[in-house]
Design a protein that fits this description.
alpha/beta; 2 helices; six-stranded mixed beta sheet
């Protein structure tokens, strides 16, 4: 019997809109889907382009799933999981930070890795097709793109070796 459930029905949100946002703007509360287009430049940290208007589920992890470290402390957790058809999952971490990309990128990567480590304790890794995404609504400065690309190159192999996955660092997730 599974002791940790990443896909609790009570936390599930869903949409089939062609464009929607992922938000994490309420302190101490889970991330959520926002379908109000007028919030795109205000609340949306991640933007999901769902061209074929597929039904997409979102399961928040942070503030919903209790993941503990070996010493009993709360583990780092990513914001949530987008669940697409055919068991395709996208683990998402949302950031709204302008400064010190090296710090928030490393932090975001560790949050995703730790969440995935717990996930693989309770779910068969071969059952799902998994991607990981770090979204930051502040990714507008050209210098950021240079730093992001350097980070992706440096961490690509580490992330793949740790979890066999590719880590994307982009505000927009294209389904």
């Amino acid at each position: 019997m599974r002791t940790i459930d990443f896909f609790e029905e009570k936390n599930k949100q869903s949409t089939n809109q062609a464009l929607f946002g992922l938000c994490d703007d309420v302190e101490g509360q889970p991330a959520y889907i926002d379908t109000d287009l007028s919030n795109k430049n205000v609340k949306w940290i991640g933007i999901v382009k769902n061209q074929n208007e597929k039904q997409i589920l979102f399961y928040p992890v942070d503030h919903c799933v209790d993941l503990k470290t070996e010493d009993g402390k709360m583990a780092q957790r990513c914001e949530g999981i987008l669940y697409l058809s055919d068991n395709n999952l996208i683990f998402t971490e949302l950031k709204d930070r302008k400064i010190l990309p090296a710090v928030w990128l490393k932090d975001a990567q560790e949050q995703i890795i730790e969440t995935l480590s717990h996930f693989f304790k309770y779910y068969e890794s071969g059952t799902y097709k998994i991607k990981a995404w770090i979204c930051n609504k502040q990714l507008t400065n050209p210098n950021y793109y240079k730093q992001i690309n350097e980070f992706k190159e440096i961490t690509k192999e580490t992330f793949r070796l740790k979890k066999g996955l590719v880590l994307f660092v982009e505000r927009t997730i294209k389904i």
